[in-house]
Amino acid sequence: IPTFSDGSDEGAIWGGPTQWLSASLSAVSFTLALTEKYKRVIVIAHDTIFASMRTYIPDEKRVQIIWIPHSLGSVFRDEYSNAERIALEKHAIASLCDSRRDCIGYIGNSSRDALRRAYNVPSRLLVPFINGVYRKSCMFRGSRRGAVAFLRNHDISPDEKIVFVWGRCTYQKGYDVFLPAFGEFVREYPDYHLVAIMPTETSSSSYVHTIQEQLERIPNKKVTAIFNFERTLPGSMLRYSNVDMVVFPARFEGAPLTPLEALLLARDRARFVYSQIPPHNDIFRENGGAVGFGEFSPSAIYRALVEAVHGDGSEKASRVVPDFVQNTSGGIDSALLSCVHGR
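and the corresponding structure tokens:
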């Protein structure tokens, strides 16, 4: 569909308010063309970029919109989240609520709570589309052999214990606070090595520069950083027997997938260290192999890493990982039933 983006990269496609409105309008135009052939059109619209569709067709009864936000301006504290974004979201959500045929899907309990609290969405309009893992994804085809080859190619000793992090190289993911913590940690525990996969496709140049400077301060070549997207490498690393800790230092999230992937793939004795934001708490609350830090500072993360090292491993985690296909199909069923019964 045509939008104001030049399509040059993911950041341009996501854009800002002008791009979001243009994408919603184009999606509406395409949807209305479908109504010439079909009596009913159901649109599953993901995230803020398509939030405003109903504002353009307030009285169109042949269209049902299931809007599923993966980020919200009231929760995210990044360069895209400001008063203008929140106002756009509130206007779009009001249009969805005024329609007696639409609903809003929530991807996690904290997202549901934010929609209720910050956007006044009534519970009757909220349908669970809880984030989960698609277990047959090609991203999970990586093997332990792939991790061994990666370590060998980067001169990482097979005797070193691995601390593993991965995710976009952005302020949201908190690497600028985690890296100083790891630098302090590895001075005390020199048998550890950090592997960090931080793709920069959506990164600001200033943030990447900050991260590169911090990486240079970590002593004795105890870190290996990868700045491009490697589809199967995270799965390979998680399966590797020497991965001792997996860290999730994000400042904010919607309903993150990386912790679910770690729970699915990491070896039983692997420890998880995480920021105690609501979405992480939902995932790790029942996990005996997890250590949280509440204060977002290098010293707090350092203490959590040390605690994870000295954990006795006596508590076994159940590692129940939600299934994407099951949760999505259940959400669609609920959304369609709510429309049929007119709520």
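(Above: one complete record from the training split.) Strands lie at 41-46, 63-68, 103-106, 126-128, 161-166, 192-197, 223-226, 243-248, 271-275, 290-293.
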